[in-house]
Amino acid sequence: MREPRPRWRSLWYASLVVPGHSPAPSCFADLLDFLPDVLAWVKDRQGRYLWVNRTFVIQYSFDHQRGNESVSLESILGKTDYDLSPAFLADQYRHDDEQVLAGHRIVNRLERLEESRGATIWSVTDKIPVVDAKGAIIGTAGITRAAGPASSLEAAATGFGPALAHMRAHFQQEITNQRLASISNMSLRAFERRFRAAFHLTPQRFLRKLRLRIASRALVDTNASLSEIALTCGFADQSHFSREFRRHFGRTPREYREHYRQL
Hints:
Largest sheet: 5 strands, antiparallel
CATH architecture of the largest domain: 2-Layer Sandwich
Number of strands: 5
Radius of gyration: 19 Å
Number of domains: 2
CATH superfamily of the largest domain: PAS domain
Helix content: 40-55%
CATH topology of the largest domain: Beta-Lactamase
Order of helices and strands: HHEEHHHEEEHHHHHHHH
Distance between the termini: 41 Å
Strand content: 15-25%
Oligomer: single chain
Shape: globular
């Protein structure tokens, strides 16, 4: 039998309001516990976890279990990403939070993750601001779910499954909007307009962010040269890679690697 949800968690979640919607009932949090492939969470303005669903706890336990020591809900709540994740990922998550706290949304972001056993998995992430009854932003909420096979990407954003699958399979190569529009059975103009409406980014910015996040992991997790990472992540050359990377992360690839390798 599942342990009863602590009362403060239900009351806190019941007070959440998503912009443009009515306050969320506390039972909504309970429903998210029944989604086995979806990680869901709520953070305050300081990035501290106020609520996570059951799958989040299970996944965190799987990734961080040490010996026979189990991970409990209490070991996550009140912590920040700097307590729970490698520094380079925590910095990225905090950057996301700051964007969301400013009123922006992160919608259907495709991400490539590396499992510890060497297998590559893909996920789709959404993050939105959480406001109180007066409309003030009091935190962030997000979900991440496994992308699965190419056919399941259609569920993330109707009409864009083929385009997302193509980006996932060919991010190392040049990808044009015309090609993405063609495999989506849309005109170029319609594809660009609808893509921006669905993802809050142009197709090329979406693709560039995907490549940069993949590259950031490679810088920390591998010993590949900068030129090798540039080419395998779809950049024209090392100079192009370094320029785009610094614009996004505020550090050159070399500085980024040295910084996080020292932590």
